[in-house]
Write a structure and sequence with these properties.
- The chain has 274 residues and is mainly beta.
- The chain folds into two domains: 2-102, Rossmann fold; 106-272, Porin.
- 12% of the residues lie in helices and 59% in strands.
- It is built from two helices and 14 strands.
- Strand 12 and strand 13 (252-256) form a beta hairpin.
- It is rod-shaped, with a radius of gyration of 30 Å.
- The two termini are 28 Å apart.
Length: 274
């Protein structure tokens, strides 16, 4: 931990060296460093005037996340009386930073995901399925999700057409950009299934489904073991199967082909493994 201590010239407050020595003596180990490799920074500032002594101490991780703040007060000219209180605050911040650092570098979680997308089905459709999360060092994530897209009907006024449904599995790699916001890119593949309505041909046609996805994601922690995140972004189909059947007169009828581009929204709830 790095300790920055702004002490006015001539102040009766203890020096930085004295405070660091007190903390390290109490904890029985080396705590403070001035160079690189620190994981937290503590900043202390003193205001000592006729109204009294005010000491403000705040701690933050090296990535800017606030770990806590404390304010101490004493009568004018009595800053030396705050020595034990300042040492206690510094010790608590060190222990808290240790707890933050002790969090596992790799995290595994499982849950469920719901999706709303304008393709691969003919119109906006909802899908739901299981989700799996692997996270490394709070910055890089691998997400796997599966989804079932319930039947959607596409037909003429005479009821000629087909019902379409799909199953898919997606793999995304995500990078945390700042706070809970991140960017994800990946692929989704599966099967698109068509069943004819008043048309001749196979009772069911199955075609390969595939598209690339790119989304922005906002993640919210719900306690220590659960997370929720919302994502939105475009998708690009690289497998656009065409479905066709025979009409009663023997002519082939084109039924459906997925659009080239679309948009997808995803809501995921993840429970983290202990």
């Amino acid at each position: 931990m790095r300790f920055d201590w702004q002490r006015p010239l001539g102040s009766l407050c203890p020096t930085r060296a004295v405070l660091q020595a007190d903390v390290e003596a109490g904890m029985g180990r080396h705590v403070f460093a001035d160079g690189g490799g620190v994981r937290a920074i503590v900043h202390g500032a003193i205001a000592d005037d006729l109204d009294g002594v005010h000491v403000h101490i705040e701690a933050a991780s090296v990535n800017g996340e606030t770990l806590g703040t404390r304010d101490l007060h004493a009568p004018a000219g009595q800053c030396a009386s705050l020595r034990d209180a300042i040492v206690l605050v510094l010790t608590l911040f060190v222990e808290y930073a240790d707890d933050v650092e002790a969090e596992p570098a790799n995290v595994l979680g499982f849950g469920a995901a719901g999706e709303l997308a304008s393709t691969p089905l003919p119109r906006f459709a909802f899908a739901v399925g299981p989700a799996l999360l692997f996270e490394h060092d709070r910055s890089l994530q691998l997400r796997v999700s599966a989804a079932y897209w319930p039947e959607v009907e596409i037909a003429t006024a005479r009821g000629v057409g087909a019902t379409l449904q799909a199953v898919s599995m997606a793999l995304r790699a995500c990078l945390r950009v700042i706070a809970g916001f991140g960017l994800c890119a990946g692929v989704e593949s599966g099967a698109l299934i068509a069943t004819p309505l008043r048309l001749r041909g196979p009772a069911r046609q199955v075609r390969l489904l595939g598209h690339g996805v790119l989304d922005a994601r906002w993640e919210l922690e719900l306690g220590r073991i659960m997370r929720a995140d919302l994502a939105a972004g475009p998708l690009l189909s690289f497998s656009r199967p065409a479905f066709s059947y025979l009409r009663a007169d023997g002519e082939r009828m084109a039924v459906y082909r997925p659009r080239l581009t679309g948009i997808i929204f995803q809501l995921t709830l993840i429970i983290l493994s202990p």
